[in-house]
Amino acid sequence: MLTVGLDVHFRKSSLCLLDEHGKVLGQKQLTGTWSAVIDELKRIEQPFQICYEASLGYGHLFDQIKTLPHAKAIQVAHPGQLRLIYKSRRKNDRVDSRKLATLCFLDQVPQVHVPSIDTRSWRGLIEWRQKIVGRRVMVKNQIRSLLKGCGIVPLKKTTLWSQKGTDWLKEQVFAMAVDALRRDMLLEELAEHDGRIKKLDKALNDIGRKDPRVALLQTIPGVGPRTAEAFVAYVDDPKRFRNVSCIGSYLGLVPSQDASGSTNRLGHITREGPATLRKLLTEASWQGILRDPTIKKHYEAIYRNDPTRRRIALIATARWLSVVMLSMLRSNEGWRTSEPADQKPTAATPRTTNEAAPATRAAATTT
Question: What is the pTM of this model?
Answer without folding.
Answer: 0.85
